[in-house]
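Duplicate of earlier report; GH3 middle domain-containing protein input re-posted below.
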Amino acid sequence: MDPKSDASDNGLFASFYQNVLCNAQKVNNETLGKILQKNHSAAFFMDRSISLMNSHQPTSPGSTNEGYASVDKFREKVSLTTYDDYRDYTERMIYNGEKNLMTSDPIIYFNTSSGTTAKMKYIPMTASMLGDFAPLVHVSKDIVWKSLPSSTLPSRAQLLFEMRNGKKVEMFGRSKNNIPMGPLTHFISSLPSTSEYRRIVSTLTLLPYDLMEEINDSQISTFVQLVFAMAVPDINSYTVAFSPAFIHTIKIIENDFEEISLCISSCNFNASSLIRKKNYDPKLLDKLNDALNEITIEYGGDQYRNERASYIRQECQKKNAPGILHRLWPSLTYVSTTTGGTFAMHKEEIQFYCGEKVPLINAVFYAASEGIFGMLASIHTDEYFLLPTTVFFEFIKEEDVHQAQPKTLLISEIEPGNRYELVCTTSPGLVRYRLGDIVNCTRFLSRSDDLVSLPSEPKEIPRIPLISMAYRVGSLLDVFGEKTSEQHVLNALQLTICQWKHQGIPVDIINYTTYAKLDASSAYYVIFLELIEREKKRSSSRSATSRSKYG
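Output:
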């Protein structure tokens, strides 16, 4: 059924909007209650006396202010935490195989992250966390389809492309009791082949998931996945998780289209000099060749492959022409990658590759190793709805983030125009955990926003905050106590680029990095810029040293 045929009062988003978003604080309080009830016997909860609290009680019988009594007590009695508060517990789980330390739920995976320090973090993930997330995937699709013109909606035959990372299940590091460990991007590979979640994700990939996992070289994996994507003409969406990696895939297409075309026309990955150079496993190459043949034979076999390869060469030889993605896949409905926060610097370049007809949308979910926090509000914005069913949210005002135990606000208390550090309590056992992400509260949802069609009821929209990413707390520069964030640096660089353009220097920022030069007689920031010439679209790396006004 055409998703647009449903009125705005029907569908998955309508139900989510009316039952969850319009009752965000009540639902979030209930989420906290469920977490505390579930984990009250875990060692961390016992050690912090959290298990002695009433988890979820209304302030009085029949009160509509349900949950606030216990929420206020929870915030008053339980300290804010950082990863150091959990390190001993996670190490006992990993090295000793101990259970029921942070959560009573079975742990199915340890997300590994170095965070802003060199010391590894291990964040537990549970089956119930996955269960909370699964229905939201369908809601997010409903939001995307409701935001698109009816004429662009996909047919059943069209395919999705998402650049994936993974490895064979036996390649994962394991805890003492055999729980797999690795980055969040590899989680799906850790699931057993019988997993329903893995099965669903596998149906969305062009390259069979089990074959992708056999490729243990990331460079070759990226190339092979792009060959499979370019071998078909009717991809509906093109997704790469992070915008620098997204741009990298485009550069591979631009630079290696001849070899990609040869791989497709010959149905043989040995046509790639990269694969020949690495002397890759011939048995795996045979499997990849067979899979490529299988996916292209549906379109016409040899004749189709030759025509497709010729078309790819024709379009990729149009240097500096906009819309390479739309030209390669005319049925492309949207392109998705991270475009919020400091990733915004890449938006203009990626939109150039999309062309005017293909919308560039932010990552559909705002997620991290610790949990899933937000869902894209519309393809027309980088803003997110908070997800009150996944974690319990608190917020620290930006001006208070350097305090050890600052006061926090709830979803119902944050205001547009302000920035906050996210604090979360999660089902896998993080309690009042300082995430380190600074978010903007941009506005409250309104019918006049025209983001996504809203149900007719309730007529008066309650306070539903929209958020966007700003920066990470750990990414501050500080020479003289000025607390310079990523956003401050990016804003200054963008102003500088505008001045250069007015002076006849047509460049844009590709990327940058910076550090504080503290061993000089007068401390200053060193900024390295990677620039691209706007007219020629030719990358060049340049470095610049910039003294702060304090230097």
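The two ends are 63 Å apart (CA to CA).

Merging into the original ticket.
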